[in-house]
Every structure is written in C-alpha cells, then in structure tokens.
Amino acid sequence: ASSNIPMEFMSANQWTQFGITTKIADRRDPTFSQIFIVTNASEADEMDKDDKYDADNPDNMFTFSEFIEGLIRVGIAKANGAPPAEGFKKVIHKVLANCDPQCFEDFNKIFNTPEIWDVFKKPSKKVFKIFTKYAAGNTEAVDSLASMDIKEAFMFFKDSGIQAYSGLSRRQLIGAFSMSQGIDVEDESGFESDYAEFIRMLGMLARMYKPDSAMPIAFREFLDKFTSFKI
C-alpha cells in the first residue's frame, strides 16, 4: 500500500495490484477495474464536471465492506454459468492461496488483543450457546455440532436481526462468513465455521458495522446488539 493512503482504505490501483498478485485479475481484462467503480457506493457523486473519475479523492476508495462486495462481484463474473456461489468460492480459494500470509497475521493482531478478549468475557457463554444452537440447525450438515455452514449462518443472521440493525447487505454477510475461514484451500468440504472462526466472523462484521470506531468499541457494541435476542 502507498504510504499516503490511509490503511483503512484501498485505492483503485491497490485493488488492481491485489487482483494481479492473487491471480484473480488479468491485466488485459478491464472487468476487474470496472468492478471497483461499480462497487464504490459514492462513484456517481465523485464524477467531476468533465465526467472523469477523480482517483485522488479519498471517497473513491474501498472500505472493508466494499472490498468484500467487490470480491463477491468478481466471483459472480467468473462463475461462467455456474451458480454464483461456486464462482465466489473459487475466487476466495485463489485469494487465500496467493495472498501474502501477513494479511491474516495483521487481522489477528487487530482482533487478538487483551482489549478485545476483555470485551468478550461477559457475553462469551451466551455466544457459545448461540453457536451450538445454530451449528445444529441444518440437519443435512456433516458434523453439524462442530461447525456452522452458510445455511445455519443465515438462520442466525435472521433470528438475531444482525442484517436489519447493522444495515449490512447479504453479500457483506456472506463475505464475512467466507473470509473468516482459515487458509486451508485444500479443504473441499466447503465453508463451514468452527467456533473460533465464528468469533472471527463476528469481529469482521463488527469491523464493517462500525468501520470508524476502535475495534474493542465496535466489537462491544456489536456483541451487545446481537446477544440481546432470546435463543
């Protein structure tokens, strides 16, 4: 990342470099760059009088949630007639296989801190109870008590009201669920979260829900919101 770009944003050039590095973009294909423009929520407002995209305006950058949506759009574009979820799965696997491992270490440094775990102490029992309930929600899942699949995750999202009060889109919820998985790209059992990954997903959702807040504050508010519903 360029030193003059705030670390919480991703510029168009950084998005393109990310795509090339992780091998999900082709320099000769403009689709990847177009996805950046389409996904950016403020794109229409950031056109200047000459209808040129103002690449120097900080508003013309990806936030974390827009980055996730961008990845989902890439997956849909690469589905080639297959179900969009399959296209997205292939994109995520390719990203995880080719990105710098430091990316995962950086998120862990943000999330695995004493301040975060102090926030987690009080609601931890209820969070675990919620996980075990919804991890057993889809009887078709293998080892259902040990992991939560995407169907079970959406049962949880719906019952807890996360989507309603956070304003996060379905694509963002799917993105957080998928990106919370580990880097075992050889595992074809398909996107199922164990308890540790479930907690990491909550952290990612909190980050998207309150991107301008310090992580412990965002996590506390997010946990207070969704643990208030009756199991």
Termini distance?
43 Å
The computed structural class is mainly alpha
| Major sheet attributes | none
Q: Helix count, per DSSP?
A: 12
The outline comes out as globular
- The tally of strands reads 0
Strand content: under 5%
| Radius of gyration, whole Å | 18 Å
Succession of helices and strands = HHHHHHHHHHHH
Point out poorly predicted stretches.
1-7, 42-57, 183-189
Structural write-up:
- There is one protein chain.
- The chain is mainly α.
- The chain is 57% helix and 0% strand.
- Helix 1 crosses helix 2 (31-39), helix 2 crosses helix 3 and helix 3 (64-77) crosses helix 10 (170-179).
- The model is unreliable at 1-7, 42-57 and 183-189 (pLDDT under 50).
Keywords for this entry:
mainly alpha; 231 residues
Layout of strands and helices, then pairs:
Elements lengths: L11 H10 L9 H9 L24 H14 L6 H15 L3 H10 L2 H8 L2 H12 L14 H11 L1 H5 L3 H10 L15 H15 L5 H12 L5
Helix pairs in contact: 1-2, 2-3, 3-4, 3-10, 6-12, 10-11, 11-12
